[in-house]
Write a structure and sequence with these properties.
With 111 residues, the chain is of the alpha+beta class. The chain has one domain (22-110). The chain is 15% helix and 14% strand. The protein has 1 helix and 2 strands. The relative contact order is 0.18.
């Protein structure tokens, strides 16, 4: 089902556990002479953008297709991806840092 991920309109969950999320919709463009070229049609962020103090971040890539009539022998082209996450390092008071660690722990166990 479309738009049912966290932070999307069709979901019962908010986007709080997602620090950075991006939805991208690609289609094949037959007007460009590159085999397998995928053109970006839509892009939207769905995230909290909250700072974090966790020791690792996980990246997931979920691919779905709207093509209902795929048969054996058909191909699905998935564009390459590179995740670049910019961040700002800053010094916080110990109490603020401990609260941020606690929040990161709560979010990690929520999903």
């Amino acid at each position: 089902a479309a738009n049912t991920g966290m932070g999307m309109l069709g979901s019962d969950y908010d986007f709080t556990p997602i620090l950075f999320g991006m939805y991208r919709f690609f289609t094949a463009n037959t007007n460009i002479p590159y085999p397998g070229y995928q053109q970006l049609e839509r892009s939207q962020r769905f995230d909290s953008g909250e700072p974090t103090a966790v020791d690792r971040l996980f990246c997931y890539r979920i691919v779905s297709t709207y093509q209902q009539d795929l048969v054996d022998g058909d191909t699905l082209s998935i564009p390459a991806a590179r995740q670049l996450v910019s961040g700002v390092m800053s010094q916080e008071s110990e109490l603020v840092y401990m609260q941020r660690l606690k929040r990161g722990y709560e979010l990690a166990n929520q999903v």
